[in-house]
Amino acid sequence: MKVDRLVSIIMILLDKKRIGAQELADMFEVSPRTIYRDIDAINMAGIPVRSTSGVGGGFEIMEKYKIDRKVFSTDDLSALLMGLSSLSNMIRGDELVHALAKVKSFIPAHKAKDIEFRANQVYIDLDPWMGNSNTHPYLETIKTALQESRLLSFEYADRYGNKTTRTAEPYQLVLKSSHWYWLGYCHKRNDFRLFRISRISNLQIQDETFTPRDYPKPQLDFTDIAAAMQTKIKIRIHKSVMERALDFCTYKNFSPDGDVHYIVSFPFIENDYYYNILFSFGDKCECLEPEHIRTEMLRRIHDIAALYER
Fold it and tell me: Are residues 82 and 65 in the same domain?
């Protein structure tokens, strides 16, 4: 059960007269059964939520109820502040400022210092060390288009650098593995597409609005697919690149080889992406087996060398 979802539901119920279970379920992308469990938890926390059935029915907080500031524990408030503060560093907006202000209003004065200390124990910085300077302004543009249901026009480069001009309806911002994407309905492809923000240029918000349509959740978890495609190869790495190698496998895949090297059972798929991972280790990595992977690495090295021999 997510505390941030419970708090969001409470805020919605305080702001709205009445709202249905299905509407809440769609809003938070969970099942109505989960919403009913959340409502039970909110009731157990001392906030009287009643439900009405029939047309126009739903959940509502009993009239004249004043929310008790003691309903949230120190851990609850610390977790909310940590999440909201980290998100507001990347996506700025009045709604986040207001949400932070509301959460802070629940903090008793005598606990403020302790809660601030706990909230600062984990700091999430979504900004890359170096990166595309357009990310922040583009996020703001996309967020505005999402809120106002306005079309976006832009140029989009595929992984080979080919550019096309697109117009799309924005539906969702997605942060996956430190990269920002947005889900939109592309008018050129007549289908939903997940656009990577770093591949976008000349992003413009249009005056034209659109009627939102039902949209699918983007497929973001490829764990099972990757596991089915991956094989294990044996590489020998210098200890100086061990930290980077641990981004792709766990320490149990490492065995010492002398004082400064490791033999690693490395997950691998035979495509350009994985070959480039091996090349990113430079001369601190050697593929030992299987032989055909080693041979392909050598062929690619000769192709690279040929570029500089001309």
Answer: no
Rounded-to-integer distance, Cα 5 and Cα 7, Å: 5
Maximum alpha-carbon separation in the chain: 81
User: Do 84 and 69 touch, CB atoms closer than 8 A?
Assistant: no
Confidence band (pLDDT; 50, 70, 90) for 155?
A: very high
CA 68 to each of CA 19, 43, 105: distance values in angstroms, whole numbers, following the listed order: 22, 12, 11
**Given a cut of 60, is residue 263 above it in pLDDT?**
yes
Domain total of the chain: 4
CA distances from 286 to 36, 150, 236, 281, 293 (A): 55, 51, 5, 9, 11
Q: Is the pLDDT of residue 1 over 50?
A: no
CA distance 37 to 98: 27
Q: Label the pairing between strands 179-186 and 163-176.
A: antiparallel
By residue range, what is the domain housing residue 141? 135-209
Confidence class for position 222, pLDDT limits 50, 70, 90: low
- Whether the predicted pLDDT of 90 surpasses 60: no
Distance CA 44, CA 296 (A): 62
